[in-house]
Amino acid sequence: MKNDQMDFCDLLKRCTGCKEVLPKTEFNKDAGKEDGLQTQCRECKRAAQRKDYLKKKDVYAERMRKQREANPEKKQAHEAVRRAIRKGVLVRPDSCSQCGNNQMRIEAHHHKGYAEENRLEVIFLCTSCHRASE
Q1: CB–CB of 130/106 below 8 Å?
Q2: Domain boundaries, the chain
Q3: Using CA atoms, how far apart are residues 76 and 125, in angstroms rounded to an integer?
Q4: What backbone phi and psi angles, to 5 degrees, belong to 12?
Q5: Residues 6+ positions from 85 with CB-CB distance below 8 Å
Q6: 110 closest CA partner among 123, 99, 97
Q7: pLDDT digit of tens for each residue in the chain (134 aa)?
Q8: Cα–Cα distances in Å, from 38 out to 28, 32, 43, 44, 105?
Q9: If one looks up domain 10-55 in CATH, what number appears?
């Protein structure tokens, strides 16, 4: 009976935010932690991140404004792809064209750059492949 009790306890973890004992499936991964999971459950982590965002909203907005001003071609290229997808000129696939992953968000990668003649020259990659290609 003790082994069954230990196995059940191995499936649970206490959240440092809400203090509740929850299944480990309610926690996101964190390779830096001993058990490989974050200390707060997803719900508490989401609430903490939202609170932090609202506190620093002006800082984040200023950072985005500076990025758009520094890279106007990039912004225009992203908008061109967004409009092309909405009009049906481009079709966003359900899976990554590089690794085939269909569980992550699929993003348009401007592999030939952001110049006007290349704005719709994109390949669709999952977030992981897109970050690796930059």
Answers
A1: no
A2: 10-55, 72-133
A3: 19
A4: -115, 160
A5: 91, 92, 108
A6: 123
A7: 455 555 666 899 999 999 999 999 999 999 999 999 999 999 999 999 999 999 999 999 999 999 999 999 999 999 999 999 999 999 999 999 999 988 889 999 999 999 999 999 999 999 999 999 87
A8: 6, 9, 12, 11, 22
A9: 3.30.60
